[in-house]
Amino acid sequence: MNDDKLCNSKPLIAIPTGDPAGIGPEITVKSLAGHELDNLARCVVIGDLQVMQRAVTITQADITINVISSPEQGQYEPDKLNLIDMDNISLDQYKVGEVSAVCGRAAYQYIEKSIELANGGLVDAVATTPINKESLQAGHVPYIGHTEIFAELTGTPDPLTMFEVAGMRVFFLSRHVSLRQACDLVTRERIVATAHRCFAALKRLGISEGRMAIAGLNPHSGEHGLFGSEEVDHVIPAVLQLQNEGYPVEGPIGADSVFNLALEGKYHSVLSLYHDQGHIATKTYDFYRTIAITNGLPFLRTSVDHGTAFDLAGKGIASAVSMVEAIKLAAKYAPFFRS
After folding, report:
1. Which residues make Cβ contacts (< 8 Å) with residue 77, sequence separation at least 6?
2. CATH code (residue 168)
3. Residue 293 belongs to a domain
4. CA angle in degrees (0–180, nearest 5) for 60-61-62
5. pTM of the model
6. pLDDT, tens only, 17-34
């Protein structure tokens, strides 16, 4: 295979650079200035030329910015950053490390452009950098975060989040609700319906072998109702129904051991019964390499799982490990989304 064919076989990943006042531009530059991704992916950055030039200066990266208007114009070679310049912000309009309406609007427009490219089949996947919810609100962007933006702009009513770290995949029965409400959402019907969606998502990612573990909610999964009846009333009936339907599931498995068992390879995935149950497990194991995948979209979207880190922005010291891992995961799974 010649070099051109080899280059074109690598997945094409769109990277919206996130909030200009945060670390998104810097970690994007650092990721592409290193050579870890050279043989894995081609990347198209969506952002602002002034912002990215400053990020190159701040990080002292040995990389050249190549301004393009569409992905096919990119020069996909080491030490090149192919940028679609949205030209939607000036450096004198905001301060690095501070909430800003103009930055919220700009970040939204970068995401919007990346979705346009993915929906049009011009890129294989999107790997997102951090945005700031307060900046979005200040900029009158009518969405609370990335997932809601992607859901609306792709017509996806209820995207399904999955975390992956070290081969462990974790889904969530509920997301941003109170712990009290999360407990109320642990019902047989919801577990069964969510598990159906999880298996469909895994199949889309090319994963068909292995078993899913359903985590317990209460300590030691309630000890047969001694302290908490959710497992007896809802989790066990859900597991039995799924097994009768032919799904390879086990549970409830105590939350103090289920994630370690998944890391050891006993399970290909875990259904966490509330937000922090799975977040704590994955991020404690490896905070920077825990990557989010948004399932259910018409294309693949991965994301770093940290914020804009305003306290680090502009200093050139933010770690790019999570961004590199997000791009790697996008490149890993993108081929399964090609028609």
Report:
1. none
2. 3.40.718.10
3. no
4. 120
5. 0.91
6. 999 999 999 999 999 998
